[in-house]
Predict the structure.
Amino acid sequence: MKVRSLAAAAVVSLAAAMGLSACQNVAGFSQPSLVRVIDASFIAPAVNIFVENTLFAGNVGEGFISGYGTVSPSQNAPVKVAEAQGGAALVTANVTLAAGAQHSVFLTDNGASPTQYIVTVLEDAQTAAATGHSSFRFLNQAPRTGALDVYMVPAGTTLANTIPLCTDLAVGSTCGYVSFASVSVTMVIVPTGQTTPKFTSAALTLTGGEVRTVVIIDSQLTSNPPVSVVIAKDVD
C-alpha cells in the first residue's frame, strides 16, 4: 500500500500549461482564480473534467489530483464531468470561484446504487504553515472502510503513544487543516477505534511550512480493502 504517483494517475492534464504562477494585481483587471480538480469518485468510469469549458483533466479516475490552473473568477462557473469514452455527461454544476483564491473542484459520489455524482468546491490554503510546523487536510472517500482515525506518528514513537490528528472522520467528510510540529513522521490510518492499520506510509520528512491535502480512498473490488492515499501540495 503505497502513496500513488500523481503523475501516473492521468493520461491528460492541461493544468501545467495554464499559468501556475502566483496571481498578481494588474490595474483594471481582476485577479484570476486558481483551480485544480480532484477525482475521488468511488464508482465513476474514466472521466474528462471541464471547468469554464476548459479541459482540466482527461481520462482520469479515482485518486487523481491535477495541478493548479487559472480561470476567470465567477459566481456561476460551469463544471462538467463527462465519460472519457463517449462523452456522456455524468454531472454538471455551477460553482463560485473567487478572484485571487485557490480552489479544488472535487468529484465524489454517494457510494450507492443508483449512483449520484456530486461536485463540490473546497477553498484551499494559500499561505505556508507556521515556521517549524506542517499543516495537513484529510478527505475521507473510502466508503467500504467507513469512518477513520488518522495518525502522524513521529520517528521513534509508537501508534499507541501518539494522539490522532483526526478521529471518527466519516466518509465524505473533511478534517483539517491540522497543524503539527514538523519532524519525520509516518502516516497511519485505521478504522475508527481500531489499532490495525489500513494504511501505513513510508517516512515523511517534514521541514516546516508544508501544506498538504490528503485524499483517502479504497477499492470496490473487495469487501475489506486496504486504503490508499493521494497527497497533493497546496503550499510548499
User: Anything to note?
Assistant: DSSP finds no helices and 19 strands in the chain. The chain has a mean pLDDT of 87. The two ends are 25 Å apart (CA to CA). The first strand starts at residue 12 and ends at 13.
